[in-house]
């Protein structure tokens, strides 16, 4: 199977590295994700285990496309009778960028007609009730290059299932997992988020540290596809993945604090819903009073940016407090994501490493201040 793991800008390399660790072959990072080859079982494992990707798609066609006729023929050439159940609910989504064909609605309509025409010809049926499982099909055109794909994921991979309310400025779970991966923290070390908000960063660190698959507690669209489940014993794969979880690896390692009592209430709820109660410690404390006893560790945080709260001066004062926090903990690294170009000046030193990322549509920098 030829597949695509989609990813936010800046995370493609991380996703490619994840795919290689999961045993995928012919992995190639590209803008917006990473292409790879895998068995059906490996593709399902990617749905369960990928931390930084948005979706896993099964690529069914890829070629140059300059007209609606070419689009129709390319989509019709896909052996849909092999993939779609007789009662499949066929939903076609579209994307068009810098191509001859730029009407998403027309591309969706032509593609749906091509799929149904193929099914009529190959099955002899004239009625398609579309009352069964949902089959999300993506037709994308970028610089006249057509890709037709079947979504194996369903809801995006960031929907881990533990977060029921996002708070004022949510950090997407996949981006939080990426920040954990990009930080110098490794399982077994201390990690503390001094601006933990609703708890996403500590939870994602705990999932990684315990080697728990982020998709273990949710379902995927591919589990409703007969062609897929004939090739994969999904229950056995799930059981083997769940057996690898080891909470002893994170015992006493991961914590968070915040001044906002309401955000902490949500964070504790999310920790409980993630099955991590007693494994991630959270408490209310002002940043300027925070003092941890551990000689070494990593502070990892997503502090307010100013754009979100409308109070840049307050945010910049918080950045100064983060700088003082690291001075009080000389054996600790500190990592933060921010869109404020004044962050380093307020913090009090230049970052040792930087990486450009996007939090939603907001361009940010992920800054790493090494221990001194």
What labels would you give this structure?
7-stranded mixed β-sheet, 33% helix, 2 domains, Rossmann fold, alpha/beta
Question: How much strand?
Answer: 15-25%
Radius of gyration computed on alpha carbons: 23 Å
Counting structural domains, the number is 2
Quote the average pLDDT: 95
CATH fold-level assignment of the largest domain: Rossmann fold
Notes on the structure:
The chain has 372 residues and is an alpha/beta fold. It folds into two domains: 2-151, VC0802-like, CATH 3.30.2130; 173-212 and 221-369, 3-Layer(aba) Sandwich (Rossmann fold), CATH 3.40.50.150. It is 33% helix and 24% strand. The strands form two sheets. It has a seven-stranded mixed β-sheet with strand order 2-3-1-4-7-6-5. It has a seven-stranded mixed β-sheet with strand order 10-9-8-11-12-14-13, covered by helices on one side. The model has no long low-confidence stretch (mean pLDDT 95).
Structure in a nutshell:
By secondary structure, this protein is α/β, with parallel strands linked by helices.
Topology, please?
Blueprint: E1 2-6, H1 12-21, E2 25-30, E3 33-37, H2 40-49, E4 55-64, H3 68-76, H4 80-83, E5 89-97, H5 104-123, E6 134-142, E7 145-151, H6 173-182, E8 191-193, H7 200-209, H8 226-229, H9 234-242, E9 254-258, H10 261-273, E10 280-284, E11 297-301, H11 312-328, E12 332-338, H12 343-347, E13 353-359, E14 362-369
């Amino acid at each position: 199977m030829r597949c695509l793991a989609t990813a936010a800008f800046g995370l493609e390399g991380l996703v490619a590295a994840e795919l290689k660790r999961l045993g995928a072959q012919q992995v190639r990072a590209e803008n917006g994700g990473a292409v790879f080859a895998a068995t059906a079982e490996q593709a399902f494992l990617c749905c369960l285990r990928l931390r930084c990707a948005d979706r896993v798609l099964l690529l069914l066609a890829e070629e140059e496309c300059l007209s609606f006729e070419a689009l129709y023929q390319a989509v019709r050439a896909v052996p849909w009778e092999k993939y779609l159940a007789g009662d499949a609910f066929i939903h076609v989504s579209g994307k068009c960028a810098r191509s001859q064909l730029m009407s998403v609605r027309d591309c969706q309509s032509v593609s749906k007609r091509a799929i149904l025409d193929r099914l009529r010809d190959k099955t002899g049926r004239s009625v398609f009730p579309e009352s069964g499982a949902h089959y999300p099909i993506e037709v994308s055109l970028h610089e006249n290059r057509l890709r037709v794909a079947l979504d194996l994921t369903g809801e995006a991979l960031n929907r881990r299932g533990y977060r029921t309310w996002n708070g004022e400025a949510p950090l997407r779970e996949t981006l939080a997992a990426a920040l954990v991966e990009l930080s110098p923290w490794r399982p077994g070390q201390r990690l503390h988020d001094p601006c933990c908000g609703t708890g996403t960063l500590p939870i994602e660190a705990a999932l990684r540290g315990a080697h728990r698959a982020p998709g273990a507690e949710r379902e995927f669209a591919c589990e409703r596809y007969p062609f897929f489940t004939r090739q994969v014993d999904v229950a056995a794969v799930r059981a083997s993945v769940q057996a690898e979880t080891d909470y002893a690896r994170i015992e006493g390692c991961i914590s968070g604090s915040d001044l906002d009592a309401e955000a902490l209430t949500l964070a504790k709820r999310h920790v409980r819903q993630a099955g991590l109660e007693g494994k991630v410690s959270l408490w209310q404390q002002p940043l300027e009073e925070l003092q941890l006893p551990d000689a070494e560790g990593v502070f990892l945080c997503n502090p307010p940016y100013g754009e979100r709260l409308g109070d840049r001066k307050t945010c910049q004062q918080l950045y100064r407090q983060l700088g003082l926090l690291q001075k009080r903990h000389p054996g600790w690294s500190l990592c933060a994501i921010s869109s404020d170009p004044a962050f380093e000046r307020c913090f009090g030193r230049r970052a040792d490493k930087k990486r450009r990322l996007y939090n939603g549509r907001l361009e940010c920098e992920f800054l790493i201040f090494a221990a001194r």
